[in-house]
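WARN retry 2 of 3 for item q-0093 after timeout on previous attempt; input resubmitted unchanged.
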Amino acid sequence: MMKAQTPFRAALVAALFIAPLAHGQEVKKPAVTSLTVENDKFGGGTDRNYSNGLRFERVSGADEIFPALEWVSHRIPFLELDRKELRQGFALSHTIFTPEDKTLAVPDPTDRPYAAWLYASGTIVAASANTQDTLQVNLGVVGPSAGGEFVQNNFHRVIGAAESQGWPNQLRDEPGLEIIAQRLHRFPGPSLPMGVETDFGFDVGGGLGNVRTYAATGLTARIGWDLDSSFGPPRIRPALSGAGEFVPGNDANPMGGYLFIGASGRAIGRDMFLDGNLWRDGPRVDDRKTLVGDLQGGIAVHYRAVQLAFTYVNRTEEFDAQMTPQRFGAFSISIAH
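OK item q-0093 returned
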């Protein structure tokens, strides 16, 4: 009798700790897979500072989450899970940072050092109609093992652009960890003619880790149709960012979209890409700014299961020797399934 029960018990354990858990008979909102590309060529046409970012992410359907992860989530005071839908997300991201003058084999020591950051993310998202809590853990590597030189210079060869010469002087290899938390609350605004909706968003949060440590807050205003479809388009943090989810259109209402504008500020305790490696000697800047702000605007449009979004970002100078603000664009495509 005991031997007959062994396969049953093994299957039960697998169901509880391996298979995703769906509450109720069906998932209320579908999973979403997104690709986000951020590049300064989309903004001011430059190639410096935050040069490029790439993120591939999948966010689960609502209330479809691994039971073990849900157990952990219920023990995090930040997430009010008893009144919210719960999602989990997994992502792979890559970001590149370069100085102003990339023709120098020995970079200017007063300028931003070369750096790349390759990392995986695990995210928990809890949302109600107007509130969204996000907890994200990023784990990866900063330094040559992140492949910044390979990605940038091979791409430059493909497009016929000059290669960056100073990558041998980039930040050293170091494991990277970030724990990021954000709460975003929407306040519905007045309705306008032709069914146009408005809302305002306020968020507060921050990050902790050897890569970045900061506190942040921001405001966003939106105008358009079907604003309840999402809290905002996906972005690569630190940024005013949604959680990568949206509700697709249906036969009765297949299309929606909105314009948005927002501003955010960060008080920075540590930024490895300017302060240098924590555990090893390497390049750094001595005049990093403590306060950095973003002003952004853009558009997001969805038709049935596909959402396209573009964001233009103006980021204030991050160190004294930086000549002008950073301007870059972020493009994302998201597919609900």
